[in-house]
Design a protein that fits this description.
Elements (H helix, E strand, L loop, with lengths): L1 H11 L14 H17 L2 H11 L5 H9 L16 E8 L2 E5 L4 E5 L11 E3 L2 E3 L1 E5 L5 E4 L2 E5 L5 E7 L2 E9 H12 L6 H25 L5 E2 L15 H8 L4 E5 L2 E2 L4 E2 L9 H5 L22 E7 H10 L6 E8 L5 E8 L4 E5 H9 L6 E6 L3 E7 L7 E2 H9 L4 H8 L4 E4 L2
Parallel strand pairs: 1-11, 14-21
Antiparallel strand pairs: 1-10, 2-3, 2-7, 3-4, 4-5, 6-9, 7-8, 9-10, 12-13, 12-22, 15-20, 16-17, 17-18, 19-20
Helix pairs in contact: 2-3, 3-4, 5-6, 5-7, 6-7, 6-11, 6-12
């Protein structure tokens, strides 16, 4: 009963009436943004989906799809993980050929879609499968389409699964071992131990949130191994400082009012973080704007410059059915300077306004949404920016700086995730 009440209260809090209707955007562009929002929703980019459907307002069923995307962020009570350390299913890639090469055996699995598009199943030892599970032993290596992904730990299961008319490889790992493959991929292992511990707890919380959501949705994997989730590589050697950071925080997660948070993190905020609500319209109090207290000017990605090709901007617009030659760009910002919307001005005086924080930043491959146009040429815009990443949640370089100032990991986490506490949940 309480879970249902939580869900009802959550949905009632979604601020649909405040969504920008954007009546001035051309119909063809609305349709393309709508399709992009559906693509984001289907692929699990729920923040991008919220940003676009909020922007579209009353277009088609954007409000319904906005509410659907918002459900991903509903409360997850910590009690669901009280039973002990879970396994996590990590998607490591699609394959046409998969090999498990062990000292005493080699297992070969293939997946083929012949010319003509006739769908075939995963093939192993002359038989076809929708799902096949293999178990590694000491010294086994994985080869995905001929590329080695390294040696597996003893006893790890690999699921080979049909998924969306393709075949994917999924590792089944103990969560604490998985974290030992995340930390060296996300931060520098030479950082102070408190920064590593902060990353371990944030990564564990993020993983737990995704485990719960994926299982409820019936997905064949919980997380991917790229920046779309958090970066993971099969650890071939576990460094002592990584082991300490994970083991000394074992089972700990970031909790807001008894529920797991969606513990987002990024490389460098540039000086302040975004609030979740200003990008998506959905209020998550623990992801509010945070102004850095560290002097981060000397840290990696605090400042950057980039040449953005005008043809890249034209390509983005052409995908929306808009054909214009960009002459200038103007940005609507939040109070600390981060971008929210971008207006592209054409040589003939036309203009179009688009969401910047997720949509345009990703499409144009811009390091962050906090940038200024400081120069223009016939072919380029010269951008000067601050920070790296989406700017939501914990800044990894900010955590490094705070740890150098003597902050412990719990204080760091509470600084970036407002109103939270650190709790051992298994």
């Amino acid at each position: 009963m309480l879970k249902k009440l939580f869900a009802v209260l959550f949905l009632l809090s979604v601020p649909l009436l405040g969504i920008n209707t954007n009546n001035d955007i051309p119909q063809i562009a609305k349709e393309q943004l709508y399709r992009k929002g559906i693509e984001y929703l289907s692929s699990g980019n729920y923040i991008g989906a919220l940003e676009l459907f909020r922007f579209l307002g009353n277009y088609k069923n954007s409000k319904i799809l906005y509410t659907e995307a918002a459900k991903f962020f509903e409360h997850i009570p910590v009690e669901v993980f009280k039973g002990g350390e879970p396994n996590i299913r990590v998607y490591i890639g699609h394959f046409s050929d998969f090999e498990l090469v062990c000292p005493r055996r080699v297992e070969k699995v293939s997946f083929r879609v012949p010319v003509g598009g006739i769908f075939r199943k995963i093939t192993y030892r002359g038989k076809s499968y929708k799902k096949l599970t293999l178990t590694g032993e000491k010294g086994c290596r994985i080869l995905l389409n001929g590329v080695s992904l390294g040696k597996l730990p003893l006893g790890v299961n690999i699921d080979l699964v049909e998924y969306r008319r393709g075949a994917i490889a999924v590792l089944n790992l103990p969560l604490e071992f998985y974290l030992k493959g995340v930390l060296p991929s996300e931060v520098y292992t030479s950082w102070p131990i408190e920064a590593l511990k902060a990353q371990a707890v944030a990564s564990r919380t993020f993983a737990l949130f995704n485990i719960y959501r994926a299982r409820k949705a019936g997905k064949p994997f919980d997380v991917g191994s790229t920046t779309a989730y958090q970066v993971f590589r099969i650890p071939q050697r576990i460094l002592p400082q990584v082991a300490r950071a994970v083991e000394r925080t074992r089972g700990e997660a970031v909790v807001y009012k008894g529920s797991l948070i969606y513990a987002m993190f990024h490389s460098n905020s540039g000086g302040c973080t975004h609030s979740f609500g200003e990008i998506t319209g959905l209020n998550l109090p623990y992801l509010s704007e945070v102004k850095e207290v560290c002097d981060i000017k000397a840290l990696k990605w605090s400042h950057w410059t980039k040449r953005l090709k005008k043809r890249t901007v034209r390509k983005i617009l052409s995908h929306l059915g808009i054909h214009l030659k960009p002459a200038d760009m103007g940005i609507k910002r939040n109070p600390c300077g981060r971008g929210l919307f971008i207006t592209i001005l054409s040589e003939d005086g036309r203009k179009i306004t688009l969401p910047l924080a997720v949509f345009f930043r990703l499409e144009a491959k811009i390091p962050s949404d906090w940038f200024y146009v400081i120069g223009k040429s016939e072919s380029d815009f010269l951008l000067a920016g601050r920070g790296f990443g989406h700017g939501l949640g914990m800044s990894q370089w900010g955590a490094f700086c705070l740890s150098q100032r003597g902050w412990d990991y719990k204080r760091i986490l509470r600084f970036y995730y407002r109103g939270t506490r650190i709790e051992r949940i298994y």
